[in-house]
Amino acid sequence: QVQLVESGGGLVQAGGSLRLSCAASGRAFSDYGVSWFRQAPGKEREFAAAVSWRSGMTYYADAVKGRFTISRDSAKDTVYLQMSSLKPEDTAVYYCAARYRTTNYDYLSRRDTLTYWGQGTQVTVSS
User: Fold this and answer.
1) pLDDT tens for each residue of 55-84
2) CA distance 102 to 60
3) What's the CA gap between 48 and 39, in Å, rounded?
C-alpha cells in the first residue's frame, strides 16, 4: 500500500507556472504508474498526465499537452507536474493517483482503475 500527498498548489496569474509534487510513502514509488487528474468546480474529475512504471513513458491530455510536464524522482519517491503557460481554465483541484506496476495508458487515464489517491491540491489561475 502507498500513501500519496500532493503539494505545490496556489494562486497564479494567467501565463504563469507552478510545480506540483506528489510524495509517496509506504512502498517504493518507482513500482507504480502515476497519474495526475484535475477537477474543476461543477465538472467531473479528468485525466491530465501520467508516467508509466518502469519505462517512464509519459502521457498527456490534449488540453495540457505542450504546457505540462510530468516527471519522476525515484530517489525522493516523488512525481512532479510542472505546469507552464497556465490558463484560467486550468483552475481545479489537482490529484495524484497510482496503480501498481502499470504501464498501459488505458489504466493510467481512467479514474476507476487507479488504486491510490491523494487528497488534492488547489490550483487557481487568475485572468
Assistant:
1) 999 999 999 999 999 999 999 999 999 999
2) 16
3) 10
For residues 94-116, give the mean pLDDT.
96
Distances (CA, A) of 79 to 50, 89, 94, 95: 10, 23, 13, 12
The label of the residue with cell 509534487 reads 21
Which grid coordinates belong to 122? Answer: 488547489
